[in-house]
Specification:
Length: about 375
């Protein structure tokens, strides 16, 4: 098993990647972030496909990139495997030959390489496809073969670049379970780029969230997704998040109004903070409600989104209300939507009890 450590800067037209992260041997690290955050650039640096402007990359104790000395070990000599959205199998080779390619390139004899390839194809439940070429395989079957091919050279670090994104809904759960068995259970050091909270929860030990090329939060997967401190992490975790500064009794938003909530022990009054609460905690009313909720705001209904057994009502700011409600979500039953009898553009009131709102110190 091989861990890694990197601290690099790389200037791009849209942003500057400026990160310092590490993973222990056998750890699975999920990298989350919006499009353009630098996730694929980070993988390119790790794989040796991109040379940073400054910094270093170490795989275990072995330096593979060092801008001070000019070191840049090429990708095929790094001991890094890659599984991307598309399997990118060699179209002229059978599944067996695709998987055996890496070991053969390392100098392994043909018989030994094919023996390893057959073993891996069996482990990914693709032994029956050994003699088929990629054109004869479905998308899910190709990804299974591509996973076996990526593992065949026994890489010290595996890079997974949204490996489930291109699969259809029927193939995704089986592939996710396979990745868990092959990566997590085998203690393969892995970096997983994903937009899915479920993928991170099932596969990753720890999460790093990138925004504009920088790490804005990181920690154990369940902690980050249960207590998000950045808008992107909150969005994929399915939570509402409001930014501002901590104050007595809650959070003072950037546009002035207050959100009442319960502060964590690490929240310091005056520091940047976020208020987080689930859409299920938001009550929706036609008229301003009476009673106990301390957070009561007027909104404009922006969208109605059916989601399994609930309906998500998405808000935008009204002329009379605060700006922080823009994008706020409330989950209600279909019966409640029928009773409200409203369409996008209608005025509503959202109400949230202070006890449902958690105040956390903000991400970087």
């Amino acid at each position: 098993m091989t861990g890694f450590e990197l601290a690099v800067k790389l200037h791009r037209p849209e942003f500057t990647l400026d990160v310092a992260i590490a993973a222990e041997p056998g750890e699975v690290l999920a990298v989350l972030g919006p499009n353009g955050a630098g996730k694929s650039t980070l993988l390119g640096v790790l794989a040796g496909l991109l040379r940073p402007d400054s910094g270093y990359v170490r795989l275990g104790e072995r330096p593979v990139t060092d801008t001070t000395s000019g070191l840049l070990v090429p990708p095929h000599r790094r001991g890094v495997g890659l599984l991307a959205q598309q399997g990118l199998l060699f179209p002229h080779l059978t599944a067996l030959a695709n998987v055996a390619f890496g070991p053969r390139a390392q100098g392994m004899r043909k018989a030994a390489a094919e023996e390893r390839a057959r073993r891996l194809l069996a482990e990914v439940d693709a032994a029956e496809f050994a003699g088929r070429k990629p054109a004869k395989l479905s998308g899910g079957q190709q990804q299974r073969v591509a996973l076996a091919r990526a593992l065949a050279p026994e890489p010290g670090v595996m890079l997974l670049d949204e490996p489930l994104a291109a699969l259809d809904v029927d193939a995704t759960p089986a592939m996710r379970a396979l990745l868990r068995r092959m990566i997590r259970d085998a203690k393969q050091t892995t970096v997983l780029v994903t937009h899915s909270a479920l993928d991170a929860l099932v596969l990753a030990d720890r999460v790093v969230v990138l925004t504009a090329g920088r790490v804005v939060e990181q920690g154990p997967t369940r902690d980050v997704l249960a207590r998000p401190r950045s808008p992107f992490a909150a969005r994929i975790a399915g939570l509402n998040l409001v930014s501002g500064r901590a104050c007595e009794g809650g959070l003072r938003t950037d546009d002035g109004p207050m959100v009442f909530g319960r502060g964590d022990a690490d929240v310091v009054a005056g520091d940047r903070a976020v208020a987080v609460f689930p859409p299920s905690s938001v009550a929706v009313h036609i008229e301003r409600p009476d009673g106990s909720p301390r957070n009561v705001v007027p909104v404009v209904l922006a969208a109605i989104e059916p989601r399994a057994d609930v309906v998500r009502l998405r808000a935008s700011a009204s002329a009379e209300g605060p700006e922080w409600v823009d994008g706020l979500a409330a989950d209600v039953t279909p019966a409640a939507v029928a009773e409200l009898n409203v369409e996008p553009g209608a005025g509503l009131w959202f109400a949230v009890k202070a006890t449902e709102v958690a105040i956390h110190a903000a991400g970087g």
